[in-house]
Design brief:
Blueprint: H1 3-21, H2 30-38, H3 47-58, H4 67-84, E1 94-95, E2 98-99, H5 101-105, H6 107-126, H7 136-150, H8 156-164, H9 173-198, H10 203-227, H11 237-241, H12 243-260, H13 269-280
Antiparallel strand pairs: 1-2
Helix pairs in contact: 1-3, 1-4, 2-6, 3-4, 3-9, 3-13, 4-6, 4-7, 4-9, 7-9, 8-9, 9-10, 10-12, 10-13, 12-13
Length: about 280
């Protein structure tokens, strides 16, 4: 499967839904709304939304079934990047070849733009009026709860706190993976689980996909450690064990994760291909 073609094919669907989920850039307060859109358009690869759409396909539903979860997860991802780039955190001046939000719009507006993106994410999933008949509303609310958990203090936010406070003398691989599991893998896992949930997956399948997503997510972050090997990140598997061992660990996690979704058959091939791409990408 051509993963890049799959991502390009799905991107217009996701971009149109993201655009519809946000106020126009010139709507008052215009600076805030322009700041909210700054990192989203043009966006990145839309990997997390693509995983959500592929998860719906893996359980026998059209990809559009997962679109509310795909959009909500991408909004949470964008908010986390806006805040990660702030001077009080990673203090980055550029992302995706453009000035970061706090550089372009000011620090206070960037903080508020991140806050508003997070609220918009929850609004997308909470809009049960668009969910359709039957138990679709319950599935939508369950996906909303999952996303709130993944974005909260036990996962994304807590992982960021531990990452910022990580002691560079700590080479405990389990501790590093614990941070990766919360800061990165939780959002990847909830992309997949939420997409499958909106696609009508049953509880055993959701559990299988959650384990798959967590494994892929940790491997994804270790792959980032490898790509960023020249940087001085404290919470890095490369710093702890070296490039070769880190790469081997990512590969082992990926293969274990792939084994969990073997029962899903050929319908899960796009999901498998995206997982391999996420871990073995070169940029």
């Amino acid at each position: 499967m051509d993963v890049r073609a799959y991502l390009l094919e799905r991107q217009p669907l996701v971009d149109a839904a993201l655009d519809a989920a946000l106020p126009a850039a010139d709507e008052s307060p215009a600076a805030l709304h322009a700041a909210m859109r700054h990192l989203l358009f043009p966006g990145g690869k839309r990997l997390r939304p693509a995983l959500a759409l592929a998860a719906a396909e893996a359980v026998g539903s059209p990809p559009e079934a997962a679109l509310p979860n795909a959009v909500a997860v991408e909004l949470i991802h964008a908010y986390s990047l806006v805040h990660d780039d702030l001077p009080c955190m990673d203090d980055d001046g550029e992302r995706r070849g453009r000035p970061t939000v706090h550089v372009a719009f000011g620090e206070s507006t960037a903080v508020l733009a991140g806050d508003a993106l997070q609220a918009a994410a929850f609004a997308v999933l909470a809009d049960v009026g668009t969910a359709g008949p039957g138990d679709a509303c319950e599935r939508r609310l369950a996906a909303l709860f999952d996303l709130a958990e993944a974005a909260g203090s036990r996962h994304l936010v807590g992982g960021q706190v531990d990452d910022l406070e990580f002691d560079a003398s700590d080479s405990d691989c389990a501790h590093i993976e614990s941070v990766h599991a919360r800061k990165s893998a939780a959002l990847i896992a909830v992309s997949i689980v939420g997409g499958a949930r909106l696609g009508g997956a049953d509880a055993p399948t959701l559990a299988r996909l959650r384990a798959f997503g967590t494994g892929v997510g940790i491997a994804f972050q270790i792959a980032d450690d490898v790509l960023d090997a020249g940087e001085a990140d404290a919470c890095s598997m490369v710093r702890a064990v070296g490039v070769d061992a880190a790469r081997a660990r990512a590969g082992a996690l990926l293969e274990s994760a792939l084994a969990r979704i073997e029962p899903l058959g050929d319908r899960a091939d796009p999901l498998r291909a995206l997982a391999r791409y996420a871990v073995w990408r070169s940029e």
